[in-house]
Amino acid sequence: MSRINAHANSEAVQVDKELFDLIKLSTHYSQITEGAFDITYASVGYLYDYRHRIRPTEQQITKALPGVNWPQRAAR
């Protein structure tokens, strides 16, 4: 996943069948839940540290938001 995330904007990334199937299943759940399950949430979600009660700044959230909401981007 880290290779995909690091290079997805610039080049195709080959993955094994297991990861491909997992991503495909995840996008299926995103579609059938109309985005309630969103595999792209981590773009912002990883910025939070719930154990230490750390919340990202508005600037950090704004910067990460373009990577969230896969179902809406896919529909364009």
Describe the overall structure.
- By secondary structure, this protein is mainly alpha-helical.
- Helices cover 51% and strands 0% of the residues.
- It has helices spanning 2-7, 17-32, 42-45, 58-64, 70-75.
- It is globular and about 35 Å long.
- It starts with a helix and ends with a helix.
Topology record:
Layout: H1 2-7, H2 17-32, H3 42-45, H4 58-64, H5 70-75
Summarize the structure.
The protein is an all-alpha fold and 76 residues long. It has helices at 2-7, 17-32, 42-45, 58-64, 70-75.
Features:
76 residues, mainly alpha, 51% helix
Please work out how many helical segments DSSP would assign. Answer: 5
Poorly predicted tracts of residues? none
Mean pLDDT: 83
The helix/strand series, from N terminus to C terminus, equals: HHHHH
Q: What distance lies between the first and last C-alpha atoms, to the nearest angstrom?
A: 24 Å
Instruction: Give the class from helix and strand content and strand pairing.
Output: mainly alpha
Rg over alpha carbons: 14 Å
CA-based shape: globular
